[in-house]
Design goal:
Blueprint (H helix, E strand, L loop, with lengths): L9 H24 L8 H10 L3 H10 L4
């Protein structure tokens, strides 16, 4: 069941990849600029944002980000 790259619907995949990268970059910028986080520390949240692709930034924005 190998899938050829030619069969991938790139017009659907590229926007998802771009959205993911923007979400990760925005989350990392927010993390660096913040004074602190609610749960854990900044290094832990940076690893979560980077390693968990789409879920990492969502978790950061909902659970980790310190509300001002």
């Amino acid at each position: 069941m190998s899938m050829e790259l030619a069969n991938i619907p790139w017009n659907l995949v590229i926007p998802i990849i771009i959205f993911q990268v923007i979400l990760q970059v925005a989350s990392l910028i927010s993390l660096v600029r913040s004074d602190g986080v609610q749960r854990g520390n900044k290094i832990m949240w940076a690893m979560i944002i980077i390693l968990l692709s789409m879920m990492g930034p969502v978790l950061y924005w909902t659970l980790g980000r310190e509300v001002r």
